[in-house]
Design goal:
- By secondary structure, the protein is mainly α.
- Among the domains are: 1-83 and 101-119, Voltage-gated potassium channels. Chain C (Four Helix Bundle (Hemerythrin (Met), subunit A), Up-down Bundle), CATH 1.20.120.350; 140-267, Helix Hairpins (Orthogonal Bundle), CATH 1.10.287.
- It contains 13 helices and two strands; from the N terminus they run ααααααββααααααα.
- The chain has helices at residues 2-12, 23-50, 63-84, 103-106, 121-132, 134-159, 207-210, 217-228, 233-243, 249-313, 317-326, 333-344, 347-362, and strands spanning 165-169, 198-202.
- Strands 1-2 form a two-stranded antiparallel sheet.
- The longest helix has 65 residues, at 249-313.
- It is elongated and about 120 Å long.
- GO terms for molecular function: calmodulin binding; high voltage-gated calcium channel activity; metal ion binding.
Length: 363
């Protein structure tokens, strides 16, 4: 709940230029100190419970706990530095006179929602699967790059300089259309200028202010990448049809979409799905192993308590007192305590301790 409330506070906060502020931001800055105190106390208690570094299951040996610790330390450092360097005539928190500029450090507050990951195992599985998939995703990225390079070179050979002709008035030299589009010269199978006094002539920068073209390798790669993302690739297809020919350019674009988008980019989903399945199986195995260890530990504790109680019940008070008179000192407080417990409780004592052990272990 505290992490969620902190996320809401970060979303409500409105940054102003020149370190200006308002009443809402000032109140949120004061609430920020409360969140920082809560997170600091939580980290301190975890350090006490798990140990800092040198224990087998220490606090800093877990990657997500390490992230929490870094966020808390940076928050404390920025708060202390801001208060220590604040001027004498400081305005409310976040104002112009707030002393040292700690915006760079305070920007780390946006990482606080990641602290939720340390408490939600399912989120840990998702993020771990993404991290483990980085190397396979790099290989897929190289494959995508190769596809883009190959189709960019083919586009250079087929469509270089073809996207700069449009319908222009012969007498004025201005564009004949409100939204210019490529056209093909007379005799070609592209789009022709049908208005009187117009002709298809070079002089237009091209679609999308000259960005979408195949005139050089860089723009060709950009156009191919746009088509692979399937963002407006049909517009590019229609422009090429209008400028070159409507009979065969579709082969270039359809194969590009099938190979580059449907096949290669979907490999990303396949890799992520495979890594997620592996990480989920590992998380399940770790959970089963932890439950088995807890069960074994519970059985060992119960066995130890049962052995101790059995030994206490096997002591005969009369013989023990005689033995104390003959062989042992009379001030054996431990033996007297055991005899006293045995006389007072009996079987009820055994049931009470078993119930207490079970409750303490479970809760």
């Amino acid at each position: 709940m505290t992490i969620f409330a902190n996320c809401v506070a970060l979303a409500v906060y409105i940054p102003f230029p020149e370190d200006d502020s308002n009443a809402t931001n000032s109140n949120l800055e004061r609430v920020e100190y409360l969140f920082l105190i809560i997170f600091t106390v939580e980290a301190f208690l975890k350090v006490i419970a798990y140990g800092l570094l040198f224990h087998p299951n220490a606090y800093l040996r877990n990657g997500w706990n390490l992230l929490d610790f870094i966020i808390v330390v940076v928050g404390l450092f920025s708060a202390i530095l801001e208060q220590a360097t604040k001027g004498d005539g400081a305005t409310p928190i976040g104002g112009k006179a707030a002393g040292f500029d700690v915006k760079a450090l305070r920007a780390f507050r946006v990482l606080r929602p990641l602290r939720l990951v340390s408490g939600v195992p399912s989120l840990q599985v998702v993020l771990n699967s993404i991290i483990k998939a980085m190397v396979p995703l790099l290989h897929i990225a190289l494959l995508v790059l190769f596809v883009i390079i190959i189709y960019a070179i083919i586009g250079l050979e087929l469509f270089m300089g073809k996207m700069h002709k449009t319908c222009i008035y012969s007498h004025s030299g201005t564009n004949a259309e409100e939204k210019p589009a490529p056209c093909a010269p007379d005799g070609a199978y592209g789009r022709h200028c049908m208005q009187n006094g117009t002709k298809c002539q070079v002089g237009w920068e091209g679609p999308n202010d000259g960005i979408t073209n195949f005139d050089n390798f860089a723009f060709a790669m950009l156009t191919v990448f746009q088509c692979i993302t399937m963002e407006g690739w049909t517009d590019v297809l229609y422009w090429v049809n209008d400028a070159v020919d409507y009979r065969w350019p579709w082969v270039y674009f359809v194969t590009l979409i099938i190979i580059g988008s449907f096949f290669v980019l979907n490999l990303v989903l396949g890799v992520l799905s495979g890594e997620f399945s592996k990480e989920r199986e590992k998380a399940k195995a770790r959970g089963d192993f932890q439950k088995l260890r807890e069960k074994q530990q519970l059985e060992e504790d119960l066995k130890g308590y049962l052995d101790w109680i059995t030994q206490a019940e096997d002591i005969d008070p009369e013989n023990e007192e005689e033995g104390l008179d003959d062989d042992k000192p009379r001030n054996c407080e431990y033996c007297s305590t055991i005899i006293h417990f045995n006389q007072q409780t009996g079987q009820h004592f055994t049931l009470f301790w078993l119930l207490g052990v079970i409750l303490c272990t479970c809760f």
